[in-house]
Amino acid sequence: MSMKNNTILRTERLHAHYILDVYGKAKVIKAVNDVDLAIQEDEIYGIAGESGCGKSTLLKALAAAVEPPLRIISGRVTYRIAGVEVDVSTLTQEEKRKLRMEYIAYVPQGSMSVLNPVSRIRNTYRDFIESHISVHQKGEAFALAKEHLTELGLPVKILDAYPHQLSGGMRQRVTIALATLLKPRIIIGDEPTTALDVVVQRGVVQLLKDVQAKLKNTIVLVTHDMGVHANIADRIGIMYAGKIVEEAPTEKIFSAPTHPYTHYLINSLPKFGDKSPRESVPGSPPSLANLPTGCPFHPRCPHVMDICKQEMPGYTQVASTHKVACWLVGEGTHGKAA
Amino acid sequence: MEKLLEVEHLTKTFTLGSVISRVRITAVDDISFYIKPAEIFALAGESGCGKSTTARIIMGFEHATSGTIIHSGKKEAKNEKVWFTEGIQAIFQDPFATFNPLRMVERYFFETIQNYKLAKSKREAIERIDAKLRLVGLTYEDLAGKYPSEFSGGQLQRISIARALLTDPQLIIADEPVSMVDASLRMSIVNLFKRLRDELGVSVLYITHDLATAYYVCDRIAIMFRGKIVEMGTVEQVLMAPKHPYTQLLRASIPEADTAHRWQGEIRLSDTEQDEYLRQGCRFAGRCPMVMDVCRRVTPPQFDVDGALVACHLYAETKQ
Q1: Could you tell me the strand order of the sheet in which A25-40 lies?
Q2: Do B223 and B44 touch, CB atoms closer than 8 A?
Q3: What span, in angstroms and rounded, lies between the C-alpha atoms of B82 and B150?
């Protein structure tokens, strides 16, 4: 299998900043800085990081949902549609609308804000289906919704319910079912299981995995819960202050974390059967409006060197599938991700 | 055995709906537990299991429908709220909601000092505040003149712990203290609870849904399900060898940050919560893989299984 031909979603040196006007002065929030990603077909790609590290902004750029004050400063995002790489910035509004849900779908965190609280689930499904495919007969949309829910093992009777009548986990699964109705090639999940109970979370992750196994598509999953990543992701990118600082297959991230930040992230997690003392990452995350010079992790890093304060390192391949941006490992390079 | 706080047969019933379709939900159903001095006790379970209601009753925000709470051998009197605030302090889930954004953080400290007459002069007050802040790794200098927005969530949570410590409490009730804090900073909070227990002899009632941190920090744990305590014992007993089928499901559902322990098999979820509250017999019977006839009819009593209390008919042969 050649890696290159299977890349479905790619970013090249992507910079996305929020440009705000504060009392007549421009304020720049550098949420995504120099991100190179190459996400493959039939892969679950996890993005992990603290709150305020730019994860959600990166997802907006990936989903081509960039709206002011967020702007793409430089770099590009490309989709591979039917074998052809397409630069997202060249698409018209109408083309983007068409792609949305049919090619790329989005599952948000709060399912309550997706489903209309005063409308039955069936109406939400009908509106959604009718806006994307032409329906000739009255019951056709409903039949399609029913068929899809049955396929995913969800009870069909929920179509007649209002969102508040369902439990949080069921609502989230209904949202996932809605997002996958048109069999999209890419599903983007922004903390889809956060704020759910553990048992329910497991059910939701189970559904996401089932959907992926059936459609053989790509899931980009953002969550700060490393436990969820360990259970579902094939590869993980660790994000810190708008940069992907380490990327590797899930097993590698957990067994051989290389970046000092990843190290802390993995080793601060409590484990069953092991009560040895654990430490948090020292200090607190930097503000994206006022990033430190050089490597943004240097004020918190225990291995900080002079060069770290001056310059951001590029990526060094420590193994063929494992790249790290840290001066401890090497100078590295930037550019087109594999 | 000395007990700092004892909760006996605590029950809280809420009434839902209008006059026509009234439903009574027992959010906390006849639970009993105790906390020893210098002990971290976890009350764990999913949302809606009644763990926060229990905490709110202990803190005096709600009145129990029935049952008693005994603090240092003294019973709670109905119209006396002050009894607990000296000995018991609380920390809440959302550090940003704890502090008024338009009020300087230090004002909360001075207010507590005034309320409890803990200092005679401003200098004495600042000394006391500084001493408590140092326990959580901060100083008065870090705080002076600042507003809540100038701190991160983890810092604010440590500040609210320092404020709680001002009155030298014996017990801290922490309602989901780390669930809003980033995973990378959680350990700085839970390590603090450990230090308070070991160095100051403070007990903590740790209310959480996060069993991994509960295992790391707690001595004993009670697992709640739909208002009932289904299993109680030391964290080793309950979390490393769970006996109740619900605890087993809960334990198996925790996403472990270890690629060698990925989830196996499928699970069943309940569609709505209300059915389970209103169920006769064991409330887990609808989802339990080992359900028997008796489970649907009779509420299981607590059985002593190797030192842990388990409310499940499977253990009926062992003595009660």
Answers
A1: A25-40, A7-22, A70-81, A84-87
A2: yes
A3: 32
Per DSSP (E only), the strands in chain B are: 5-16, 23-35, 40-44, 66-71, 74-75, 88-91, 171-175, 203-208, 220-225, 228-234, 303-305, 308-310
pTM of this prediction? 0.84
CB A232 within 8 A of CB A253: no
Q: How confident is the model over B209-256, as pLDDT tens digits?
A: 889 899 999 999 999 998 999 999 999 999 999 999 999 988 888 888
Q: Residues of A with CB below 8 A from B182's CB?
A: 50-51, 224, 285
DSSP bridge partners of B171:
B88, B203
CA dist., res. A74 & res. A57, Å (int): 15
Could you tell me which residues come within 8 angstroms of residue A29 by beta carbon, excluding any fewer than 6 positions away? A17, A18, A20, A288, A289
**Which residues on adjacent β-strands are paired with residue B35?**
B5
Sheet holding B5-16, edge to edge: B23-35, B5-16, B66-71, B74-75
Q: Check B253 against A277: CB less than 8 A apart.
A: no
At residue A317, φ and ψ (nearest 5 deg) are -80, 105
Which of B182, B250, B271 is closest, CB to CB, to A198? B250
Alpha helix ranges (H) inside chain A: 55-62, 93-102, 121-132, 140-151, 168-179, 198-215, 226-232, 250-255, 260-267, 306-310
What's the distance, Cα to Cα, between the start and end of chain A in Å? 13
State the residue for tokens 């094939």: A234
